[in-house]
Amino acid sequence: MVDFRYHLVSIVAVFLALAVGVALGATVLGTPLLHTLRAEDTPVPAEPAAADRDGDLARRLHKGGEGVVDAYAAEMLAGRLDGAKVVVVEAPNADPAQRKDATARIEQAGGTVAGRLLLAGKFTDPEEASFVGGLADRVAPEDSRAEGGPYEKAGTQLAKALLVPAPDSAEAEEESAAPGSKGAESEGSARASGDGGAAEGPRADEGDEGAETGSSAQEPDGGDGAAEPSAEAGAESGASPGAPAPLPEVAPRPGAPAGGSGAAAVLAAYSDAGLVTGRAPEGKADVALVIGPADPLPTADGNASVLALTRAMSTRSGGAVLAGDTASAGPGGLVAQARAGETGFSTVDTLGTVSGGVVGVLALADALERRSGHYGVADGATRPLPDPVPGPRDTEGDEVRPEPD
């Protein structure tokens, strides 16, 4: 049996070893070890200060570059959109500053903003998809209903109401040959003159036809858009100051299908349904600029509704541009979702900057030449700006220049 003396010796030995270790560490081993640690010690660099300097330098370089672009913007954009009419479409929660900057650049390039359409949150709400599709079916004539899902149908109708068809498209030929159209009237006048002997005044049957179907110059729903709502009308409707007035309510053309199929009637139907607001175009536009939301839409299905409209506009006119800031090209962004698929239209991810406004206009000019691309600095962009850069628009003869070989 181990007695008490054995336990006492063990405890004393432990404390003795501890005392010896402390003594050695403080004397014999302490000095060399301290010198070794000091020799191996490397001071921590002042990383936060260096990062601040690098960030400040990057901001100054960006500001300087934007200043250079702004100084030469007028020269870069001169004539690129001469005579072109642009309709600006804004997704829900689009940044007004981006729209104002884009509008200024369009006008600087010689273009005109013919109309403005704001998509309501109801339009992009996936739970309202069946409502959107039902409205599209009710508005469209039974013999010309669009194919596809709800947003493809709605996009096709809105595109027809806002944009002229591409000059070389089958739709352009059909609309030109339609009774009451400018092309049909010109052809009829030419035949009358060639048959010898027609007077300079209008034909009686032509006047009757105009009275029956209406004309774009006299009837707001004749296919060329409607006049801008007055300020008084906006006040009566309770719209907030500075907000776009609702689209005008236009009676259907005599003999038209229920709901009306003219451009202004279509826009009025969508406005009355709470899906869009804005300024109806004064004559249809040649190309569309679609501005994405400042913050990503809640769902990918919401993005899909805007993309369907943009795609329909591109198909209708031959070109459209979807623009947003760099965040829109990030996860869940509208531009990112567009670039992930086969779009057929151009995208820009630098809107909201000086250079982005310039690139947006160049992309519109590129679209008028039947070309498209993904421009910017974020993921999915193929180049910063169109290459080759489109030149001044040729307004003599054909309004749109043919695509170069």
UniProtKB/TrEMBL annotation:
Membrane-spanning segments: none
Name this protein carries in UniProt: Copper transport outer membrane protein MctB
GO BP terms: copper ion homeostasis
Biased composition (Pro residues): 243-255
Region feature Disordered, mapped onto this chain: 166-262, 374-405
GO cellular component: membrane
The organism's place on the tree of life at top rank: Bacteria
Low complexity bias (residue ranges): 177-193, 226-242
InterPro entries linked: MctB
Bias type Basic and acidic residues, positions: 393-405
Organism: Murinocardiopsis flavida
